[in-house]
């Protein structure tokens, strides 16, 4: 039963994603978006504004692209782990392409009154989706090198908090609706779980 628990999680995440997709395509104003947006609203030139604006850069495509390059070089030159390097590269590139395709298909406009410059469509959030996938993979690489369970838990919890903060930062900066973030997390989680399972399943057969 536990062996296939990941399948239930993937299905649950996909159900949530398609539920949100259906809701936003109805083009109605969602009470959830309004409530959460007000909850995380920040004023310009405040500490919260500066904090979230800094955090949001960690989910930008340039940061993730540069971080991915460093990880690939590390896996290639230092670890000589070509299978993990290939999965990491294809995983991040595929996630970015998938996110862009869905955005251009759904064509949801971003919220008004942005607190920072942005471009493109809104649903699902690339920061939430690709950021979750990237930082999950980085956390996995770090945790593989750590022996103590307590430290592994600390690293895992730290990365989860970072991923959540990046999502919240997009709401605070008014460049995404909360449902964009939730959908990005749901799709990113389903993608990551599937990717990790394929990585472990195919690894022994490829190597």
TrEMBL record:
Entry keyword set: Membrane, Transmembrane, Transmembrane helix
Q: Which residues cross the membrane?
A: 55-76, 83-102, 122-143, 150-169, 181-199
Q: Where is the Phosphatidic acid phosphatase type 2/haloperoxidase domain?
A: 85-196
Matching Pfam families: PAP2
Domain of life the protein comes from: Bacteria
The name of this protein is Phosphatase PAP2 family protein
Origin organism is Peribacillus frigoritolerans
